[in-house]
Amino acid sequence: MHAVVGGWHLSPYPDELIAKTVEATKEINPDYLIPMHCTGLRTIMAIQREMPEKLIMPSTGTRVVFGG
After folding, report:
1. Contact, 11 vs 41, CB < 8 A?
2. How buried is 53 (Cβ within 10 angstroms: 0-12 exposed, 13-18 middle, 19+ buried)?
3. Of the four listed, 10, 45, 49, 55, which is most buried by Cβ atoms within 10 Å?
4. Is 50 exposed, middle or buried (0-12, 13-18, 19+ CB in 10 A)?
5. Could you read off the pLDDT tens digit of each residue along the chain, which spans 68 residues?
6. Is 30 within 8 Å of 6 (Cβ atoms)?
């Protein structure tokens, strides 16, 4: 998988679920993780801690272009 892009909507969920999601994402091993704001700060911090080289933090106006 090249990238996971979008909102994961995990902000209201407990840390245990966030940790399981991050571990499952590590198993998939995408090249990039681009979480939107609704992913939640705790999840983004977990991604930063576990897979910092894969994290791209978007903001308003961010444009992501993938080559073919």
Report:
1. yes
2. exposed
3. 10
4. middle
5. 999 999 999 999 999 999 999 999 999 999 999 999 899 999 999 999 999 999 999 999 999 998 87
6. no
Tokens of 50: 């576990």
Phi, psi of 5 (to 5 degrees): -125, 130
pLDDT at 47: 97
Is the CB of residue 20 less than 8 Å from the CB of residue 27?
no
Query: Which amino acid is present at 40?
Result: G
Q: What is the greatest pairwise CA distance in the chain?
A: 38
Q: Measuring CA to CA, which residue among 62, 68, 13 is closest to residue 35?
A: 62
Our measurement of the distance from residue 5's CA atom to the centroid of its chain's CA atoms, rounded to an integer in Å, reads 7
C-alpha–C-alpha distance, residues 32 and 46, integer Å: 15
